[in-house]
Specification:
By secondary structure, the protein is α/β, with parallel strands linked by helices. The protein folds into two domains: about 70 residues, Winged helix-like DNA-binding domain superfamily/Winged helix DNA-binding domain (Arc Repressor Mutant, subunit A); about 180 residues, Vaccinia Virus protein VP39 (Rossmann fold, 3-Layer(aba) Sandwich), CATH 3.40.50. Helices cover about 50% and strands about 15% of the residues. The chain contains 17 helices and ten strands. Strands 3, 4, 5, 6, 7, 8, 9 and 10 form an eight-stranded mixed beta sheet that branches. The longest helix has 25 residues. InterPro entries: COMT-like, COMT_C, COMT_dimerisation, HTH_CRP, SAM-dependent_MTases_sf, WH-like_DNA-bd_sf, WH_DNA-bd_sf. Keywords: Methyltransferase, S-adenosyl-L-methionine, Transferase. This is Dimerization domain-containing protein.
């Protein structure tokens, strides 16, 4: 005979189970709270003001221009998120994670915070439903221009964009320079090379190379400063280029970094085909791009970045096989895939398909 307590206990367990699932959904639903809290903390310069020290809420409020009572509520949330901690005397200090919100530390993510929580990016997320329905980027629909044109029109945001990716570009440039054999290369064309940080890292380590930076903003003052500061002016040509139409001809090696991920398959194939058309005989292609694992469930970060690509540019993250498909369509053969350290980025090396 069943215990009279069996049924209530089963109901309690079922109720607890539902509560756990509700909590999980609510965490997702209110995920924007963490994003905005971190963004506001950076905007108030909280991480910079704290630095390596601990401060009272009152002192921090005075130095950041905030009200003590409301700042205390923000700091409480940051503490729950694991970004700040309370010291024995009740003062506030940064955790190791919170320290990465400072601009002056190795691995800083301050630029990414300022970019991806910017009001324009925030507004673009409102178009996610339409983007899912028709496959077109939300940003274009909301702002009447593509994301990169918007950056060009807003220099302050463009500077934040460059800041956010400068660390990655520098590190990837160093890794590619160390991993890839450049001994047979004379001219490397960086397609969509931004402000030149990635290319100049390669040129600085391989002094026989001549580089061509091909980008819509290649002749911007910030790019000239990057090239000059790296000491490679004599070996680096800056070429204004719309890679959707054409790329500079005559390169031994064409390189893209964070370019193909920004476009849907049709446009990405066009870019790759343009590189194939203008390649010097015997030349090759390097893609430095994130590669998703071959599974229906990528990491949470990859899933978020994939949707962000759809919202901002219409781009997408791809698996190795999906890269192979678009490369084949563009006249390339994928020869080798090499992972970069401490990231989901890989070097995808391709050569012209024999039939071409």
């Amino acid at each position: 005979m069943n215990s009279p307590h069996t049924e209530p206990r089963a109901e309690d367990a079922a109720r607890d189970d539902v509560a756990d699932h509700q909590q999980h959904v609510f965490q997702l639903l209110f995920g924007h709270v963490g994003s905005k809290a971190v963004h506001v903390a950076v905007r108030l310069r909280i991480p910079e003001i704290l630095g390596d020290h601990a401060m009272s809420v009152e002192e921090l409020a005075e130095r950041s221009g905030a009200q003590p009572a409301t700042l205390a509520r923000l700091l409480r949330a940051l503490g729950i998120f694991g970004l700040t901690r309370r010291t024995g005397d009740g003062h506030v200090a940064l955790t190791d994670s919170g320290a990465l919100l400072r601009p002056d530390v190795p691995g800083s993510v301050q630029g990414e915070v300022l970019l991806f929580a910017d009001e324009s990016v925030w507004q673009a997320w409102n178009g996610l439903e339409d983007a899912i329905r028709d496959g077109k980027p939300a940003f274009d629909r909301i702002f009447g221009c593509d994301f990169y044109t918007h950056l060009c029109r807003h220099p302050a945001l463009e500077a934040v964009f460059n800041q956010g990716f400068a660390r990655q570009a520098r590190e990837f440039g160093r890794q590619v320079a160390d991993i890839y054999d450049f001994s047979r290369v004379r001219t490397v064309v960086d397609v969509g090379g931004g402000d030149g940080v990635f290319l100049t890292e390669i040129l600085a380590r391989h002094r026989h190379l001549h580089g061509v930076l091909a980008d819509l903003r290649a002749e911007a003052e910030t790019t000239r400063d990057t090239v000059r500061d790296a000491g490679v002016e004599a070996r680096c040509t800056l070429t204004t280029c719309d890679f959707l139409s054409s790329v500079p001809s005559g390169g031994d090696l064409y390189v893209t970094r964070n370019v193909i991920r920004d476009w849907g398959d049709e446009t990405a194939t066009t870019i790759l085909r343009n590189c194939r058309r203008d390649l010097r005989s015997g030349g090759r292609l390097l893609l430095v791009e994130p590669v998703c694992v071959e599974t229906p469930l990528p990491s949470a970060r990859q899933a978020a970045e994939d949707l962000l690509g759809l919202v901002l540019t219409g781009g997408r993250l791809r698996t190795e096989n999906e890269y192979r498909t678009i490369l084949t369509r563009a006249g390339w053969t994928l020869d080798r895939v090499t992972p970069l350290e401490s990231s989901d980025y890989h070097i995808l090396e391709a050569s012209p398909s024999p039939e071409d």
